[in-house]
Amino acid sequence: MEIKGTPFEHGYSMPAEWEPHSHCWMGWPERPDNWREHAKLAQRVFATVAAAISRFEPVTVCASSSQWGEARSCLPHNVRVVEMSMNDSWFRDTGPTFVVKKSDSSSDKQQKVAGIDWTFNSWGGPSDGCYDDWSLDLLVARKILELERLPRFPHSLILEGGSIHVDGEGSCLTTEECLLNKNRNPHLTKEQIEDELKAYLGVRKIIWLPRGLYGDDDTNGHIDNMCCFAKPGVVLLSWTDDESDPQHERSAEALSVLTSTSDAQDRQLQVIKLHVPGPLYMTEDEAAGILQSGESKPRLPGTRLAASYVNFYIANGAIITPQFGDKKWDDEAVRVLSKAFPEHEVVPIEGAREIVLGGGNIHCITQQQPSCL
User: Fold this and answer.
1) Could you say which of 24, 74, 172, 364 is catalytic?
2) I need a labelling partner for 97 at 20 to 30 A (CA). Which of 1, 13, 170, 308 fits?
3) How far, CA to CA in Å, does 314 sit from each of 155, 238, 289, 306?
4) Domains contained in the chain, CATH given
């Protein structure tokens, strides 16, 4: 069901990711020009992520008709597998952004759930996008909302879910590098984009970081690789102590913004530094396993990987976090996240390097559906 008007006009807003979920949605990778070895290695890690999340909340994995059987055989029985066509499996960006409507009645605490169906252009359109044809991805959000029989707010704004992060109390984090990029919405000013975010997410204040993670060229600097809320008033920031690393300048720049601003509730933000791994680079062998087709952005040896521990998924009672094989910083990430989320079990996912080889990580391949109760 399509709803006219904006979510805010109808009383909806986007909840924080740590609020209760009814569901998690994922896609199933298969395109050989992005995932090496015909996606077999990535599929194993996706299955590990889905299985880990399914311990805490229901999970649905969407797979194409040719891959449904493979996905079903790789995934545990408690994970639902449904057939859905897609161009690639980044459901954070192609799936719906869910919003909730809380009842005005104190005796009726039920929340109603709907979804925003943003416009997707493969992270940059014909000239800068990650692949040439994204026509199937354009329908993913609508199909999920149809499956769940949830209301849909269509929007012509080109925006991906990984480019925004909210605290559920009126604040939104994003980056100028992404949302103000000329390959998204060049006809809109910064103020006009802010107005759209406020109208659709139900937020009151946008906190703009200048840039995202160094090397995150695929998404033009999504916030979910750089910074996120851990709770209202507290943010986790990708960091490096190495001043010779180009990431240091970006992290210091972001730290300056975050420590000099307040959130929508007029709280000064507390910043927790979460050190990045590596740096890590795509190897010759890894690049050789990708079928460079000319239809998608090439994956070349020596490319710095946009690896970040901020790119985790908050499940009901758990933090599903990537591990990259860098023991020092893998262990440190688990320690920092355990302290930041003391009520959650931190679940490390070994082999998450396989996901970052394709251009993202655990947060990028998941989309939470908030609970209606």
Assistant:
1) 364
2) 308
3) 26, 17, 31, 20
4) 8-370 (3.75.10.10)
